[in-house]
Amino acid sequence: MVTHAFLLAAALLALSCFHAIASDPSLIQDFCVADKMSTVRMNGLTCKDAKDVVAEDFFFPGLQMAGNTTNKQGSAVTPVNVAQIAGLNTLGISLARIDYAPYGLNPPHTHPRATEILTVLEGSLYVGFVTSNPDNKLFAKVINKGDVFVFPEGLIHFQFNYGANCAVALAALSSQNPGVITVANAVFGSKPSISDDVLAKAFQVDKLTVDRIQAQF
Length: 217
Known about the structure:
about 220 residues, alpha+beta, five-stranded antiparallel sheet, 10 strands
């Protein structure tokens, strides 16, 4: 009986240690404003001295301004993450404003470090995400002003303004630095380029088609 109790305790201790290693550490102080001048490199940003922290470290102006959507995709993302607000360091959240021209697209992409929750402020959007292999199931829906949609962490997702009017959305993300991988840019616009042989076989097209697509990026 004693041996069983010992083994159970040891298993629970190992599990708790594994969880501590595998998870982000909890915040153990009021804030850790990023010291962007520090030369220390770590998974995140070092804290600047608390006596040097000011209100501006927690502030970002101008989110009411529309982004420039005069591009091929017809969309613009205005991020508000730790790069814009140093006070977000260690807090595990960020924002983004997304503007869409008529028929504008925020193309298929993924956030490797964050779940996204999106609220439509103006207009209507066709949104969706695709599950991982092997199912690759699409969950998609038209959402309107005031509607909310969630994109799970790491899954490929998109938003498309199918209307003739501009649209605006606000996204919240569960990371101070969620990252973004736009699928087409990553695959066809990598530097150096991925081999034509690889892409032609992966997409089941000829190399000339691959070359034409790569030229767009």
